[in-house]
């Protein structure tokens, strides 16, 4: 079940925003590559992630789309920190189920 930019935009509740869909479409391959590298390809069949890894790709992509520049920004009293600083704890739990560990 390949993740698309539309999936990420829908997850964010902004599926009708074509600009966001396009941006998410550019981000998804980056996060997918990170997930594939972390799991060393486990959980992927014919280059498509299983449902659990697709969820990690969706949530990671959503964070990166939220701040595509990945720079700290301040707007008035609101501070926006880099959107993707690695996988969250919950995402890591999922990824570790598929990770091949060296012996």
Summarize the structure in words.
This protein has 103 residues and is mainly α. It has one domain (5-96). It is built from four helices and four strands. The chain has a two-stranded antiparallel sheet. A hairpin with a 2-residue loop joins strand 3 and strand 4 (78-80). The longest helix has 22 residues, at 18-39. 28% of the residues are buried. The model has no long low-confidence stretch (mean pLDDT 88).
Name some characteristics of this structure.
single chain, 103 residues, mainly alpha, two-stranded antiparallel ribbon, 4 strands, 10% strand, globular, Phage gp6-like head-tail connector protein
Write the layout of secondary structure elements.
Layout: H1 5-11, H2 18-39, E1 44-45, E2 48-49, H3 51-66, E3 73-75, E4 78-80, H4 89-96
Antiparallel strand pairs: 1-2, 3-4
Helix pairs in contact: 1-2, 1-3, 2-3
Class by alpha and beta content = mainly alpha
Q: Measure the end-to-end span.
A: 31 Å
Number of structurally distinct domains: 1
Largest sheet: 2 strands, antiparallel
The portion of residues forming beta strands comes to 5-15%
Q: How is this structure best summarized?
A:
Helices cover 51% and strands 10% of the residues. The protein is mainly alpha-helical and 103 residues long. This is Phage gp6-like head-tail connector protein.
């Amino acid at each position: 079940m390949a993740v698309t930019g539309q999936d990420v935009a829908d997850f964010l509740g902004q599926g009708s925003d074509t600009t966001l869909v396009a941006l998410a479409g550019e981000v998804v391959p980056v996060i997918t590559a990170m997930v594939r590298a972390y799991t060393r390809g486990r959980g992927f069949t014919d280059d498509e992630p299983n449902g659990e890894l697709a969820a990690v790709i969706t949530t990671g992509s959503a964070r990166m789309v939220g701040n595509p520049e990945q720079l700290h920004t301040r707007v008035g009293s609101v501070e926006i920190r880099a959107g993707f600083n690695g996988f969250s704890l919950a995402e890591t739990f999922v990824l570790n189920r598929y990770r091949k560990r060296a012996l």
